[in-house]
Design brief:
With about 325 residues, the chain is α/β, with parallel strands linked by helices. The chain has helices at about 20-30, 90-95, 120-135, 150-155, 160-170, 185-195, 215, 225, 230-235, 265-270, 300-310, 320-330, and strands at about 5-10, 35, 40, 45-50, 70-75, 80-85, 140-145, 180-185, 200-205, 240-245, 250-255, 260, 275, 315-320. β1, α1 (about 20-30) and β2 (about 35) form a beta-alpha-beta unit.
């Protein structure tokens, strides 16, 4: 078995506003194996990195009176959302905005970087990856997520075709490229593999509760839990190379919220030929098991990561790349 990979969740988002080139660069410098951008679309079809297409919490869009008329309410994956949306802005308009820390209450230090960085495009990120791999003299990968793919296709801004095309132009659409494509939906992963010629490994993401929205929209009653049973994993393995489960599905929490025992998920997935990359490891108490929380607002995420490594995971997502490096006992950088 190869060494587990360290995936920088939205870049080094514990230290810089997420999904900025600065966050990706810092993560690479700290020792990340893969940088993880989430992709959404602009009104003119450009792929850009935002965790959500609603951007009032991650940019200064509220401070742009010229964009006030774009404020609206939409239903995204069955949920009513109010704000400003990437699909209502052209790339030129989006470039006038600057990024802000999404969790200012938990990460007030990161707010010193507010309003410094643009929203990056996928092309920006591909170019940065290439430069960093040269600067650091090592392979550096991308772990790309398509956000709300059913929604974006429904409004005429599909993500998948442009994504495959740009990977091909960068010479990265090949089985041995340092790239994973991931999604919380199954239909677009099948489309990427079967119809659009994606040759890189694919990963199905699974939350601890609920169901993929594409299945809900199609009237398919299967849940994430159903898809992670041994039979569900065997079916997934027809289309994907891995799963990205919520971390609590790998090492369960006890009734009091403390860290419990590993489940059978890793063994079941490995039996189906799938790698397992759980998410997301953060050092703030709010995200940690109760027994690993500290007195100052943050705790022992290294111990939590190591518990999952002991359970046999093949990699993990973290906001704190340097602590992930420590958990793996690697030399930094």
């Amino acid at each position: 078995m190869s060494e587990p990979i360290l995936i920088a969740h939205r870049g080094a988002s514990g230290y810089r506003p997420e999904h900025t080139l600065a966050a990706y660069r810092l993560a690479a410098q700290m020792g990340a194996d893969y940088l993880e951008p989430d992709l959404v679309a602009t009104a003119d079809g450009h792929l850009v990195a935002r965790h959500e297409n609603e951007i009032s919490g991650t940019t200064d869009v509220r401070d742009h009176p010229e964009l006030a008329d774009r404020h609206t309410t939409k239903v995204i994956d069955g949920v009513e959302v109010t704000g400003w949306f990437t699909e209502d802005l052209t790339l030129a308009e989006l470039r006038t905005l600057r990024c802000r820390e999404r969790l200012p209450r938990l990460r007030p230090v990161n707010t010193v970087s507010d309003d410094l960085f643009e929203v990056p495009t996928l092309q920006d990120i591909l170019a940065l990856r290439s430069r960093l791999a040269t600067e650091l003299d090592r392979e550096l990968g991308l772990y790309l997520e398509t956000k709300h793919p059913t929604y974006f296709r429904s409004i005429g801004l599909p993500l998948e075709e442009a994504l495959v095309a740009q990977l091909g132009e960068a010479g990265l659409n090949r089985p041995d490229a340092p790239v994973f494509l991931q999604s919380f939906e199954l239909a677009n992963l099948v489309m990427l593999r079967r119809d659009l010629g994606a040759r890189v490994p694919l990963v199905f993401l699974a939350d601890a509760t609920g169901a993929p929205f594409d299945l809900v929209a199609a009237g398919d009653r299967r849940t994430f839990a159903d898809l992670l049973t041994p039979s569900g994993l065997a079916e997934l393995s027809r289309w994907v190379e891995g799963i990205g489960p919520h971390k609590d599905l790998v090492v369960a929490r006890t009734a009091d919220g403390s860290l419990g025992e590993p489940t059978s998920l890793v063994a079941d997935a490995h039996k189906a030929g799938l790698v397992v990359h759980p998410w997301t490891f953060r050092w703030e108490n709010e995200f940690l098991p109760t027994d690993l929380r500290g007195a100052d607002g943050w705790g022992d995420v290294v111990a939590e990561i190591r518990a999952h490594l002991a359970a046999g995971v093949d990699g993990f997502f973290t906001d704190h790349t340097d602590l992930g490096v420590l958990a793996l006992a690697r030399p930094p950088g």
